[in-house]
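Thread: quick sanity check before group meeting

JM: Hey all, I'm pulling together slides for Thursday and realized we never actually wrote out the predicted structure for the chain we discussed last week. Dropping the sequence here so it's in one place. If anyone has concerns about the input, flag it before I start.
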Amino acid sequence: MSDDTVVVWDESLLAYDMGDHPLDPVRVELTIALARELGILSRPGVRMVKPEPADDALLTRVHAPAYLAAVRNAPRDPLFAGYGLGTSDNPVFEGMHESSALIAGATVAAAEAVWRGDARRAVNVAGGLHHAMSARASGFCVYNDPAVAIARLLDLGAERVAYVDVDVHHGDGVQDIFWNDPRVLTVSVHETPLALFPGTGFPDETGGPGAQGTAVNMPLPPGVDDSGWQRAFHAIVPSVLRAFRPQVLVSQCGADGHRLDPLADLNLTVDGQRATYLAMRALADELCDGRWVATGGGGYALVEVVPRAWSHLLAVATGDPIDPATLTPPAWRDLVASRNLGREVPLRMTDDADPSYEPWQPTGEPNAVDRAIAATRKTVFPLLGLDPHDPRD
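JM (edit): ok, ran it. Output follows.
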């Protein structure tokens, strides 16, 4: 296996543009620009790969043919409605099928590179559209690129694929698509569905018949900070991955759990997000011989958060992590200023936060985070042969 890292990128990925909408492709453009200015993309062993669109044979591994036809036709029909399209969340836009298929193709290219041994890790920061269902657009997502890539891995011979989603919103589309497939473990750490879209992701969602225990959900109360989030992540994710023994790890790394994100209510920092990327890389190294496919996802603090968070992700995937105290390059600040986005430009790659945490223990007076951890462990751990009360599991 090559030790290279593939970064799938081309400016054409920015065509997934819903117009005046929270999911602004400028966040991806500024991420790539920041990573480039920091020297991340020119590191030895980093290979930039231009994506090709996913064809219908790939897309219909997870999406209904009638849905693909609707996505293609919608921009030509000004009165189109249906399949979740034409809403404020999922407006119809020109080139919708083509740009969505390109994002899916980019994540598939990342997965293929890792599975075939052409690279140890691969990243598509434009991907992570995890809410799309088999026959419905949802939550700003038209085609579910992580699910298409996972289906491709299964077709290539993978027997156990783990999907870990750290977006603030539940990874409902990926979970739904693989609900009955015991070959795919879906793990989502997110804000409670009682407070946030999409209203799913409770601990008792554990997988369909024959696949019980392969859906794992860790919902957290609003306001959780780095220490609580890390405590929950490490109380659940390593244990279930070790029990499942995946051959490859696929991650959705939405940055919208950050305290500045306008669409959610968690209180994370880029320092905490960086720590999560390091933890996922370590798990891939431990369990999957390093095979890790990482995608972007949500994130609506377009300047203040997303470019820094995903540049940290790219650094972790390509080699040494970036020192949090690193200054953002002047050329990147000038680029942001030239866009007149009306956002404060961050001067450093840190929020000056300490992402350390106290490991979960089953004793003591539980707080809201510990109650959430206990609920998830109690529900799903026995299905995986784990002891919900033993902190070693």
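AS: nice. Residues 247 and 356 are 29 Å apart (CA to CA). Strands lie at 5-8, 46-49, 121-124, 161-165, 184-191, 215-220, 248-252, 292-295.
JM: adding both to the slides.
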